[in-house]
Amino acid sequence: MPEKPQIADFMALKGQRKIVCLTAYSAPMAHALDPHCDMLLVGDSVAMVIYGMD
After folding, report:
1. Which of 1, 8, 38, 48 has the maximal Cβ count within 10 Å?
2. Alpha carbon of 3 to those of 6, 9, 12, 35, 50: distances in Å?
3. What pTM was computed for the model?
4. Residue 24, number of CB atoms within 10 A of its CB
5. Cα distance from N-terminal residue to C-terminal residue, the chain
6. Residue 10 and residue 37: Cα distance in Å, rounded?
7. Is residue 38 a contact partner of residue 18, using CB atoms and an 8 Å limit?
8. How far are the Cα atoms of 5, 18, 40 from residue 45, in angstroms, in the given order?
9. If residue 45 lies in a helix (H) or strand (E), which one and from where to where?
10. 37 contacts: CB under 8 Å, gap ≥ 6
């Protein structure tokens, strides 16, 4: 798949193999997980609690 996969890329994978989707709660974790998954959801709610960010 290209660097930024498009919806059509995921549709093409349907029925061929499982799509790996992970969740990261901080930027460093997102950078670490990115090479290992097809799709990455990044949320900042934990950073708000841990680091006191708004």
Report:
1. 38
2. 9, 11, 16, 10, 31
3. 0.63
4. 19
5. 35
6. 12
7. no
8. 25, 28, 15
9. helix 45-51
10. 20, 21, 22
Residue 6 carries which side chain, given as an amino acid letter?
A: Q
Q: What are the DSSP E strand ranges found in 1-54? A: 21-24, 39-42
**Total count of residues recorded for the chain:** 54
**Residue-level pLDDT at 1:** 45
pLDDT band at 54 (very low <50, low <70, confident <90, very high): low
Is residue 42 exposed (0-12), middle (13-18) or buried (19+ Cβ within 10 Å)?
middle
Q: What is the C-alpha separation between 14 and 48, in angstroms, rounded? A: 36
The encoded tokens of residue 13 equal 């994978």
